[in-house]
Every structure is written in structure tokens, then in C-alpha cells.
Write a structure and sequence with these properties.
This protein is α/β, with parallel strands linked by helices. It is about 40% helix and about 20% strand. The longest helix is centred in the N-terminal third of the chain and has 20 residues, at about 40-55. The chain is globular and about 80 Å long. It binds nicotinamide-adenine-dinucleotide (NAD).
């Protein structure tokens, strides 16, 4: 049996089957994760359905539980961060920040207002708009920020009065399983069930008859499958999918400054962020200076095992993703691009790739058009700003983007023309729990975070109290008189 155990109905749910989890810094299997059976998934949804009635009845209790969950997370950073680093690859400090952010999200939703809205109050009626829970939520997360993205779902789903079954990625199931264990005595039994398994388990969840809502974060390809499997049962969906974020540098920007901030926005989590900068558009006059600034950071940054002191970039999380980054960079180089830095895998065990800055390429090259999701950044030059905006928008993606200029108003006017869910000015990756986050086009459906994200875990209900003594209203009165 694995030391990592699923949580179903508030209890440890051991499995006979397990699967190996690899440390991306070595490529070796270092732990076993439980393989959930169909019967156990049924049991998890059953427990969530049974828990839903009491859970939705007491809002104050829900808020208190979310605050206690945050306290447990804050007290468990030292225990959780090493597990996260081992399975995900990110530096230990970043893993600690991820645990901390998960607690912040839990606290934010614990304190978020959820009052009914009065939409009519006159002689004839008092009408309120309420939000009612959906019931059971199926939550599915990816491998780049397994814990924070789990809490983007757990916290609002629970505050809204739902219960939940959550499945982490098979590449990074361990931290989430551990959190399930740590919170077994915090959440009432059945309110949060944590299961683990392969992609099939995700498909079983989205076709299961119990959940009324699927909250999914992952790739566009899988998101489309999730939407298809939700349709026959009209399950509600929130889909947070991939991105190919453009950064547009304007001709008045300071090249050294923007190069630093753009490097940070592109290489955060080794480029494995849905809304990382994935292509940069730079005016010809600034091109060499911006490229040199980016390259200087790429050369200087320390790459290595997440447990090693001073390391800022870890390995790519998993072999398929590592192969994909290698393939996209090789494709760019074979089409005439230059790797100013990097350009190849590192000669060491694990899934390490050199921080790579690519020049001499344009739209129409795969690494510019597709989501690379790794430490390789194409820098494209432009002559005409209108053309750069068109190229930034000429994609199925629409998650976020940024515009960089000495004149924030000018940059904001350009940002307003970007077809994406978040348009940053002179920064990138500034995410916060109160800010709705979601994508245009193929980058998703719906949003997470803020009151808008909370609303997606509920249905509208109009509560209309008539003040007419006979119960008739403007629409029904004519039949009786
Ligand atoms: P993925 O789509 O391969 O997997 C995501 C999750 O879906 C995993 O838990 C996986 O097991 C599960 N899954 C796979 N097939 C399934 C199916 N048929 N039905 C249901 N579930 C299934 O994505 P990934 O490789 O883990 O993550 C990387 C992607 O996630 C990137 O495209 C990235 O941009 C995106 N992402 C988006 C956001 C956002 O908020 N928009 C955040 C993080 C990552």
C-alpha cells in the first residue's frame, strides 16, 4: 500500500492498485499513488451527495471550516512543500508559496460576502435573487500548480454550499492526497473527497450521474472532451484551459526594465503557467536590446533540483511535456530560428531543458502559434503596432496578455484591444483571489475567483413574495376578474 491514501467519506480509502509517481529532477519513480476503482469513485460521489444536505444548511459553519482549513495549510508548509517539489519539480521556496497561496484562497472565500440581492420591493412584491448550491462538484486539476488550483475550486465550491470530489493530475497527485489526509478532521465526512488515478478516472467523473458541475483546469484538448461528456446530462462546466499569452512591447518602453519583467512573466514555474508570457512582440528599433536583456537573465538563472539552494528553475514536470518542448524548439531551429541562449535539453538525468530565447522567427512557426508550456520563449519583431495587435489576436487562445510602455494610458489603450480574459499593463501574472480569471475563445468557459467565480458554483433562484392579498399579479389577474 502507498503512504499516500485517498480520502472518501472522511476516511482513508486504501486501494489495491497503485501507480508510480516520478520525480522530474531524476526521472525516477519515488512514490506510489492510489489507483481509484469505479466502485470507490461511486462511493466518493455517494458520500458527497449524502453530505450535501447538511453542508448547504449552515453558511457560518462553512466559513469556519474554510478558515480552519487555511490554518492547517499554513501550519503544514514544511510537510507539504517537499512533497510538492519532489512530484512537480518546482524549487522548494516556490512550493512553500504555493501552499501559502492555497491558504490565502481559502481565507478569501471564507470571508467573501454572498448576500441575496433585492431586485424589487414595492407595493406588489418583494423579490430577491438568491444563489443556491448545485449539489456535488467534480473537480479536476493539472500538474503545474496542483495545490493552488485545487483550492481555486475547493474554496468557492464549498462556500457556495456544494460538496466535492477532486482528482489531481496523475503526474502530481501526492500533495493533494496529503492535504486530503490533513483535512480529514476539518471537513465534515463526504464534503471533500480526494481520489487519484489516470486520465480514465477523469473521464469517469465527467460522465458520472451524480455531479451537477464539472470544474476543470487543463489543456484545450481535454477541455473539449470534458465539454462533450458534460453535454448529455447538461452538467454545468467551468473550463480553465491553455493559453498562448502575447506580450507586446511598445516603442517607448525601457528595454532593460521590460526584459526583466517579461523574463519573470515567461519563465515563472519554468514556463509551465497557463497565463505565462509565451511569445513577445518587440518593435524593430528595440529588438536587439530586449533580446539581449532576456538572454542575460536566461544565462544567469540557476537551473537544478528544486531542493538545491539558489535554484530558480526546476525541471519540466513530465516526460511527454519535456518531449513536446524539445520538439517545438527543434522545429523552430529547423525553420531558421536562432537560440540566443539554450536550445536543447540539459545533459543530466531528469527533464531539464536549458532556458531558451529564440529569435529570427515569426507567426506561422509552431512555437509562436502553439502553447509551448516550458522554458523556451520566442521573440518576434514588428514594424507596425496595429499589425502586432492583429498577430497577437490571431489565435484560438485568449487567456491573457500584456502591453509594456513608458506611457500606461497608451499601453492600456492597446491592452483593451487584446482578445483575452486578463490584459495586463506593465506587468504579467498579477493574479489575485478577488480578480476573476478566465479565457476568451478556446482558453475556457467561465471564470474562477472573486464573486464571479463563486457565482459559477451556484444557480440563480428568484424568490418572489407577493404582497397582494389575493396572490394575483399583473400577469395572472385578468383570468380571474
Ligand atoms: P491535461 O488536460 O492533460 O490534464 C488535466 C487533468 O485532466 C488531469 O487531471 C488529467 O488526468 C485529466 N484528464 C485527462 N483526460 C481527461 C478526460 N478525458 N476527462 C476528464 N479528465 C481528464 O492538462 P495538463 O497537461 O495536466 O495541464 C497543462 C494544461 O493546463 C496547459 O494547457 C495549461 O495551459 C492548462 N492550464 C490552464 C489553467 C487555467 O487556469 N486556465 C491553469 C493551469 C493549467
Amino acid at each position: 500500500m502507498s503512504e499516500f491514501v485517498m480520502t472518501i467519506a472522511g476516511e482513508a480509502a486504501p486501494t489495491e492498485g497503485t501507480f508510480g509517481v516520478r520525480n522530474p529532477a531524476t526521472g525516477e519513480v519515488f512514490a506510489q499513488a492510489p489507483e481509484c476503482t469505479r466502485q470507490q469513485l461511486d462511493a466518493a460521489f455517494d458520500a458527497a451527495a449524502k453530505a450535501a444536505r447538511d453542508w448547504k444548511a449552515d453558511e457560518a459553519a462553512r466559513r469556519a471550516v474554510l478558515l480552519r482549513a487555511a490554518d492547517v495549510l499554513l501550519a503544514s508548509g514544511d510537510q507539504l512543500a517537499p512533497v510538492l517539489t519532489a512530484e512537480q519539480g518546482k524549487p522548494l521556496g516556490d512550493a512553500g508559496i504555493e501552499v501559502f497561496a492555497s491558504a490565502i484562497w481559502s481565507q478569501y472565500f471564507a470571508n467573501l460576502e454572498m448576500a441575496n440581492q433585492v431586485i424589487q420591493d414595492d407595493d406588489s412584491a418583494y423579490v430577491e435573487l438568491a444563489r443556491r448550491p448545485l449539489g456535488v462538484v467534480a473537480a479536476i486539476t493539472p500538474w503545474n500548480f496542483p495545490l493552488t488550483l485545487a483550492f481555486w475550486k475547493i474554496a468557492p465550491a464549498l462556500l457556495a454550499g456544494n460538496t466535492l470530489v477532486l482528482k489531481p493530475s496523475p503526474f502530481t497527485p501526492l500533495t493533494t492526497l496529503k492535504v486530503g489526509e490533513l483535512l480529514r478532521n476539518v471537513f465534515p465526512p463526504g464534503v471533500v473527497n480526494i481520489v487519484s488515478g489516470g486520465d480514465d478516472l477523469g473521464a469517469w467523473m465527467t460522465t458520472h450521474p451524480v455531479p451537477r458541475k464539472i470544474s476543470f483546469t487543463g489543456s484545450v484538448e481535454t477541455g473539449k472532451k470534458v465539454a462533450l461528456s458534460a453535454a448529455p446530462d447538461l452538467k454545468r462546466v467551468t473550463l480553465e484551459l491553455g493559453g498562448n499569452d502575447p506580450a507586446i512591447v511598445l516603442d517607448d518602453a525601457d528595454p532593460a526594465n521590460v526584459a526583466s519583467a517579461i523574463f519573470a512573466g515567461a519563465f515563472n514555474n519554468n514556463g509551465q503557467v497557463c497565463s505565462a508570457i509565451k511569445r513577445v512582440y518587440v518593435p524593430e528599433a528595440l529588438y536587439d536590446d530586449v533580446v539581449e536583456g532576456l538572454a542575460a537573465h536566461a544565462r544567469a538563472i540557476k537551473v537544478g533540483e528544486g531542493t538545491e539552494e539558489g535554484v530558480k528553475l526546476g525541471p519540466i514536470n513530465n516526460e511527454p511535456q519535456y518531449e513536446r518542448v524539445k520538439e517545438l524548439v527543434a522545429d523552430a531551429l529547423s525553420h531558421g530560428a536562432t537560440a540566443v541562449t539554450g536550445g536543447k535539453a540539459m545533459d543530466r538525468p531528469g527533464y531539464f531543458f536549458e532556458p531558451t530565447i529564440l529569435t529570427g522567427l515569426s507567426d506561422g512557426t509552431r512555437i509562436v502559434d502553439e502553447e509551448q508550456f516550458g522554458p523556451a520563449l520566442p521573440v518576434v519583431s514588428y514594424r507596425d503596432l496595429g499589425d502586432a495587435i492583429d498577430r497577437a489576436n490571431a489565435t484560438h487562445f485568449g487567456l491573457s496578455g500584456s502591453v509594456w510602455s513608458a506611457d500606461p494610458d497608451r499601453a492600456a489603450a492597446v491592452a483593451a484591444q487584446l482578445e483575452c480574459g486578463t490584459a495586463w499593463v506593465n506587468t504579467h501574472l498579477a493574479l489575485a483571489p478577488q480578480q476573476p480569471f478566465g479565457g476568451f475563445k478556446w482558453s475556457g468557459i467561465g471564470v474562477e475567483n472573486g464573486p464571479w467565480g463563486l457565482a459559477e458554483f451556484s444557480e440563480f433562484q428568484v424568490v418572489h413574495r407577493s404582497k397582494a392579498p389575493n396572490g394575483l399579479n399583473a400577469n395572472t389577474a385578468s383570468l380571474i376578474s
